[in-house]
Amino acid sequence: MNQVLQKQGNEKLLIIMMLTITLSSMSILLFNFVLPQISKEFQLTNSQVSWVTSSYTLLYGIGTAIYGKLADRYKLKNLLVFGLLLFAIASLLGFFSTSYWLLLVARCIQAAGAATIPATATLIPIRYFPLEKRGTAMGTVFIGTALGSALGPIVSSLVVSVVDWRWLFCIPLLLLLTLPLYFKYLGDEEGTNTSIDWLGGGLLALTTTQILLGVTNNVLWFIGGIVALVLFIYRINIAKSPFIQPQLFKNKVYISYLLLAFFVTGIGYSLFFLTPLFLADVQNLPVNMIGLAMVPAAAVTALLNRQGGKISDSKGTSTLFFIASSLLIVCFFLLSTFINSNAVLIAIFLIIGNVGQSFMMIVMSKSISLTLPSEHSGIGMGLLMMQNFIAGSIAIGIYGKAVDVEGNSSWNPFNQLVMGATFSNVFFVLFALHVIILIVYSLSRRIRSH
């Protein structure tokens, strides 16, 4: 009887976490659509107003690794409650902001609180579900990412069409309703009783910050990032209780999956970043229609995500990888070939790609979780989340520069139209990269089996 009740409680916990991820994902995107209004109100340059979103993303990414480490030491319940309360307090601060700097501080504190959410979301399936159900649990949690991506633009446009943009800060306050439920369904299990090397954590944060600034601002930041990385490596090798155990980086299977996740995440960001651009430039769609064209992909992904998780549990992660990889290869080839087609076809192609990318994230998360001992699960999954943000930021920088280059001809032999050639060429390169990734993955599996 107790096992049945515990199972029901764990399922409810998944649903709550999914809804939390939905609101968290929305919060990342909500302010992207009101930057012009904020810029006008506070008389900001484009570079200044961009920090409203870039500072949030930066701290959000760094925070996932830090909270992941803390999750190896402290109760998940306490970390999540602390993060959600901090998120709510910062949202109230943002709602009453009367200056740019107060707005920026609110967004930074928001990110510091919200970073607990992805860190916790990857650990709940690991700690509360048996191995044979882990993929399904991860698929359920990641539904929130798809829903948040779909609802973010819609909710943002609806809110600002009726009230002031500051009311967007009220949406995360809904997360306070989940606190009693987390108190009820999250356990009281403690992590390992070890000290936290905050100097090592600071060096990791400094390394990440400077690398991302090198991508988005000036390449000279990379020099500082390399110096910080060297100091971080030195620190974890001399510290009594290092922020990250050096043995984790000697785990070859973990590192190989981490690198694979880096590349597939970076490629996957093209679907979120390039789609609005080519729908506007090539398809000439208005802003509201661009949002509508992207919604079906997010909706179908949310519907199928749990099924993807079940496939990884019943057939194995390799089977789901081949399905995800095939969907992405088809998607990028179709986008490259029919970039000038009508918006309905493009929406169908995006459904194929978004489902494939979401399935790929389930594969990466479950595969990496299987390589980690329990005492390293928090920091191991936290590093995965952090490097996903790094991969995305680097990829966006590359895509932004790529589409600025005027394409005079198409590299895709099946599409020789000049119009939209730049986007067609980018998608064709991504198609080729996924073919290479599939070949390398297949060969590596054959080598391991022998």
From TrEMBL:
The chain crosses the membrane at residues 12-35, 47-67, 79-103, 141-159, 165-183, 219-236, 257-279, 285-304, 316-339, 345-365, 377-399, 419-443. One of its GO terms (molecular function) is transmembrane transporter activity. One of its GO terms (cellular component) is plasma membrane. It comes from the Bacteria. It is a multi-pass membrane protein. Residues 13-450 form the Major facilitator superfamily (MFS) profile domain. It holds the Pfam family MFS_1. It is found in: Cell membrane. CDD domains: MFS_MMR_MDR_like. This is Antiporter. It comes from Heyndrickxia camelliae.
